[in-house]
Amino acid sequence: MATLTDRPEGQDHAHPDAVERQDITVGELEDVRPQAWSRAAGEWADLAAAATEARDHIQNVLLKLPFVWAGPTAMMARIQLSVLHDELTIAHRESKAASATLEAAKSGFELARTWLGEAQAMARSKDLTLHDSGGVTIPERDYPPNDPDSAGAARQDQENADSLLTRATAALSYAADVNEHTGYELERIKKAVAYTVLDDQTETAVNADTKGAKDLNRVFSGAGGVLLPPPPPDKGSGDYNTREATDEDRAIKNKMGFFAMGSPAVLGGPQSAKHMLHYLSNTGEPLDIDVDALMGDLPDMNRNVEAQLAENAPNWEAQALAEYERTGKPVKYVQQTGWQGWTAEKDPDWYHAVGSFHYNTVAQVEVVPGPDGEPKTTIRYQTHVYDRYNWDANKGTPVPAMGNVSDAQMARLHQSGQAKEYDMGGQSEVRTWNG
What we know:
The chain is an alpha+beta fold. The chain has twelve helices and nine strands. Strands 3, 4, 5, 6, 7, 8 and 9 form a seven-stranded mixed sheet that branches. A hairpin with a 5-residue loop joins strand 6 (356-369) and strand 7. It is flat, with a radius of gyration of 27 Å.
């Protein structure tokens, strides 16, 4: 979010619908019953059908009502029925999204249990110990000392243990992924059901839920895909062009345009001036952010991206290798770290251009046969940034050298149709992860 206030202390803004990730043990994954998720999905599908039937009935009443009932009371009844019609429309769509989400969870847990089953079978056949945490140990062997065959058997034991650990890690980390992202989608759906009017903001939220459910179906069936749509923006200054512009509004717009064109440093630098000019252009069109430049100017953020990749890469590789070994075919997965917040507090230019924003690193994990026949894993990644250039009218600290120009005054430019808030975002170049 853009801001004219002084830079705050650092803060990290978590995704508003994020759920806490929980580790899954072997016993817990064994206890999962995918069919129970499928039954729940069916119940939500039934609810969606019932909501559709009720909505259609209300729609028929709304069409006939003007011909049989008139007056103030009838008008109030039509308004209430229209709101109920919107609520049932939302309930219908969100129930379908919930059904698809739960059905996707079933597919995901089935795949994780398949990998776990292979790991358990391998542990039995190779006489290895698979622990409930997913760890692997080699039992004590009574090998004769200084025996070449014993040395070879020990090496084979270690290779088998490494392969078993890959399968077990894949199963448990994928089950944790399914659990986390299913919880995320259901949390968003729960919030969306609270909407009552099917306005633009509600349409955006409901469409995001539907898309998220479809993505889960694709991902958790093993086909790959991208999870988690960007977090919804706050309402900023509210509705556009809903009040009359004043002479003060026009004077502030001219003043801000003058500084953005002639003295960008007053606003923080070239990036903040560019974003301000786009706001004043009054088009509301999305604006691209140079993410590579942003990350170059914010080295702490860049290091955080690399730390998250280092944390996730072993699980991603294990899942891809497990699927490669299961199918015998090349595998290409799309994974991501998830949307999280960052504040450009250490760079005045970017702080006044974007303030606090969200970013998400998406990685493509590919496994193909190498020249020696052994699987070769490659991870390519790209960091995506999303934000909304808008104003919080509750803030009022003026910009240095700008006189009495506060966030509230900047917000009024949007409200009076003199400027227009907009989405902004972009993605970095594609890089290869080298560990």
